[in-house]
Amino acid sequence: MILYHYTSMDTAVKILENHSIWASDITRSNDYLEMNMVYPDICDAVYEEHEKGRTVEFQYAGEKGLRSLQKAVMKAKEQIDDVISYGDLLTYVLCFSEGEDLLSQWRSYADDGRGVAIGFDSEELKTFTKTKIKDAFALQKVEYKTEEERKQFVELKAYNLLHVYKEMYDSTNRFPGDHQSIELIKHMITWFMQEAIAIKPEGFSEEQEWRLFIRNVAPSNDYFAPDYMGSELKQFVHENMDCCVRNGIITTFIPINLNELGDFPIKSIMLGPTNSTTERDMKFFLEKNGYQNVNVERSKISYRR
Fold it and tell me: What b/e readout covers 108-134, taking b as 16+ CB neighbours within 10 angstroms?
């Protein structure tokens, strides 16, 4: 399967000349709202789940029950909000679409049709995610959920959080300490926000989106989350992270060398419906920059700006 990255002509030229494509920090884009598919609604969902009595009673700050849970969740929420505002909740995303010629993609992401859609081999992308740090990279198809499905997702995550708390209690036959409880809530909510990267409202389903992303490196302690927030991933991100200016704001990104995606990861280039570049010139440009056997074609959409 081919996955298409829609972009402006200027950006496409930089990608192809430099043999590098950027995974951008989603927290600095409009798509960051998608991470809030679970947050802060998860907080109220945790309270409601606790009241169902399916898990052990919560204890925090010398109190038991709902009031103690509310205090703990609010404390964890304050810390999560601080992490977000300071810019430490980093998740780098590269977006693709199954749709090879979608007007909505041309208009929104490819300079109103003047850009191109770069077609990548999905199998090469999947192989790439397995060659890096374990569980650091993922390629996922976006799930489009109704509002009811989103609520069910949040309720399930609330149950999962309290179930882990119960497992901690059962393993020692005593309540976790206050600090331990805060860390548990903070890390699990942060992880749920990470999962929401591959979820969008059903109104966006036409995009047929896939996302290649690097899991977030929010502050963590090794007690709870060594697998997906460990020091190896943090080191990789900090060693590879670079910065640029977008809309007057300094933001960070992770460059991905196209050579790491396979010998010939780019399979096609589609010229946008209002792109005046000739197919011959695009083929010459590709050959000049070392790309072989890349199919070049033009959008079949009739579109006038």
Answer: ebbbebbbbbbbbbbebbeebbeeeee
Strand residues in 61-208 grouped as ranges (E):
63-64, 92-97, 116-121, 137-141, 143-145, 199-201
Q: What DSSP element (H or E) covers 73?
A: helix 66-86
Cα–Cα dist 178/110, whole Å? 50
Q: Take residue 235 and report the two structure tokens written for it.
A: 């080191």
Q: The whole model's pTM is what? A: 0.88
Which of 206, 228, 203 has the alpha carbon at shortest distance from 215?
228
Cα distances from 120 to residues 4, 39, 87, 280, in angstroms, run 6, 33, 31, 21
Cα angle value 75/251/238 (rounded, 5°): 75
Question: 274 near 1, Cβ under 8 Å?
Answer: no
At 118, list the tokens: 């770069």
DSSP tally for the chain: helices H, then strands E: 10, 14
CA atoms within 13 A on the CB side of 93: 27
3-state secondary structure of 92: strand
CA dist 283 and 1 (Å) reads 22
**Tens of each residue's pLDDT in the chain, 305 residues:** 999 999 999 999 999 999 999 998 887 766 555 557 889 999 999 999 999 987 888 999 999 999 999 999 999 999 999 888 877 777 889 999 999 999 999 999 999 999 999 999 999 999 988 876 656 788 999 999 999 999 999 999 999 999 999 998 998 899 999 999 998 999 889 888 888 888 999 999 999 999 998 866 443 443 344 344 456 777 778 888 899 998 888 888 999 999 988 888 999 999 999 999 999 999 999 999 999 999 999 999 988 76
The answer for 199, left when phi > 0, alpha when psi is -120 to 50, beta otherwise, is beta
